[in-house]
Amino acid sequence: MNTPLILQVNRLHKNYGATPVLRGINLDVRAGELISVIGPSGSGKSTLLRCCNRMEEASGGEILVEGHDISHARGKTLNQLRLRLGMVFQSFNLYPHLTVKGNVTLALRKVKKFDATSADQLALAALECVGMAHKADARPSQLSGGQQQRVGIARAIALEPAMILFDEPTSALDPEMVDGVLEVMRELRASGMTMMVVTHEMSFAQAASDRVIFMDQGVIVEQGTPAQIFGAPTQPRTAAFISRSAQRAGALS
Ligand SMILES: Nc1ncnc2c1ncn2[C@@H]1O[C@H](COP(=O)(O)OP(=O)(O)OP(=O)(O)O)[C@@H](O)[C@H]1O
């Protein structure tokens, strides 16, 4: 039996001015899936992610979160649906004046209205999940980039979302920090979290995803298992991208 649908994207269009950036995206995400979105720079990957939680307004189409239409929701309903989609950013977006724990409890207190004790407990549990509980009282500036990103992930987990959207979570990190963050994401996957990850880390997409989506010029060109997309792509554009990425990785190693 299929697991429940967490996210449905139907005929999604996005224009910036007269320029179409997303051109009719259709996509279903089921509970427990880890989906990697790959594709050339400018293909619309981040825009797709940002339209899902209405950080960007779509120009057309519909997005359902656990069956509820977020694309036309307003006010309290919109806020509640947004909370179901956690977001992890490339640039961490932690508040520098708050401690690690303060960053994680902020939305729990302000948005979810938890009392201080409950918010602290949830925050410490989330920090434990990403191996950062021992830094609960540190400031973000005292942490490495990889540690800051793990706090960003803890902040998302603490809100108990139905799904987490990751927008290039390792792109701003020094190479030696990347593996620790990818490991936390693998553990989250193993714990059953539903995840959609825009990534340039091809080895992660290949090894950790249930499904890989290849985008180019605002459309999904092809999607399939990592074995299909990386081993036997059916579309010439996918094959060319995979081959270029492999060459680049070879040149770097
Ligand atoms: N706020 C904006 N205003 C105008 N154009 C934008 C805006 N945001 C993105 N774009 C354009 O939309 C296109 C898709 O951008 P997007 O960031 O979604 O691509 P991407 O596939 O995530 O690229 P990358 O891998 O480089 O991050 C690009 O041509 C980009 O310049």
TrEMBL record:
Keywords: Amino-acid transport, ATP-binding, Cell membrane, Membrane, Nucleotide-binding, Transport
Species in which this protein is naturally found: Corticimicrobacter populi
Protein name: Ectoine/hydroxyectoine ABC transporter ATP-binding protein EhuA
Membrane topology classification: Peripheral membrane protein
Limits of the ABC transporter domain: 7-242
Pfam family, one: ABC_tran
Main localization (coarse): membrane
InterPro entries found in the cross-reference section: AAA+_ATPase, ABC_ATPase_HisP-typ, ABC_transporter-like_ATP-bd, ABC_transporter-like_CS, MetN_ABC_transporter-like, P-loop_NTPase
Cellular component GO terms, alphabetical: plasma membrane
MF annotations from Gene Ontology: ABC-type amino acid transporter activity; ATP binding; ATP hydrolysis activity
Family per similarity comment: Belongs to the ABC transporter superfamily.
Domain of life: Bacteria
Subcellular location per the Swiss-Prot or TrEMBL entry: Cell membrane
Entry-linked SMART domains: AAA (SM00382)
